[in-house]
Amino acid sequence: xxxxxxxxxxxxxxxxxxxxxxxxxxxxxxxxxxxxxxxxxxxxxxxxxxxxxxxxxxxxxxxxxxxxxxxxxxxxxxxxxxxxxxxxxxxxxxxxxxxxxxxxxxxxxxxxxxxxxxxxxxxxxxxxxxxxxxxxxxxxxxxxxxxxxxxxxxxxxxxxxxxxxxxxxxxxxxxxxxxxxxxxxxxxxxxxxxxxxxxxxxxxxxxxxxxxxxxxxxxxxxxxxxxxxxxxxxxxxxxxxxxxxxxxxxxxxxxxxxxxxxxxxxxxxxxxxxxxx
Length: 277
Fold this sequence. Notes:
Elements: H1 2-10, E1 18-28, E2 31-41, E3 43-46, E4 55-61, E5 71-78, E6 83-88, E7 92-94, E8 103-111, E9 116-120, E10 124-126, E11 131-140, E12 145-154, E13 166-176, E14 179-190, H2 192-195, E15 207-214, H3 218-228, E16 234-239, E17 242-249, H4 252-267
Parallel strand pairs: 1-5, 4-6, 5-8, 6-9, 7-10, 8-11, 9-12, 10-12, 11-13
Antiparallel strand pairs: 1-2, 3-4, 12-15, 13-14, 15-17, 16-17
Helix pairs in contact: 3-4
């Protein structure tokens, strides 16, 4: 019995990162202004000085990445008529997790009537042995406008990394006017380095992006968007006012060469400075 107690004392639980951030934009005096801001733990929200009409915010994970047992929760809202652009300071990193421990990252967006949010985080890089569950949920009014993108990198090609044991789950749920209009689910498990070589999956590519545009003008932007995409990508109007696209590429730099023009087109304005190639 004494030996069991001693072993517990000698192997304390590893510290885990926790973070939460909340930001809300409001339309006041013909300008987009900060209505509320809260941040705690390893989650920080930066407000860069810009000359753009929208309010821009940059999310930052000061823990440097996510591993098993970490918890991060981002919330953002745009009140009636407000415009908010969100990005991240750098790529998020999902590091090797201890057995049985899952890292969790949740993002919730709320858009009131005639509001707009552009959700433009930089890439998420998966490392061998990672275990990450990510959830993206949106509740938007009928007249609101949402542009959202998520990019995943399957190890750093320049470093010769291979993902032989990965657990990654990504869930999208977008409601407009109280109805579910877009749902997407992705799960990667096991030896990703082998399974993604199949033609029906990524055909050997190691970077991919999912994007969605939900607004009344979505149909008019479908043809121009397709003109910017490579042959390996696809874009569809899956229902009235809902445009979705998927892009793949050998690495993150190649993917950005197509993704930046596509997002610029759909956004109708340059991307935040953190996206500069």
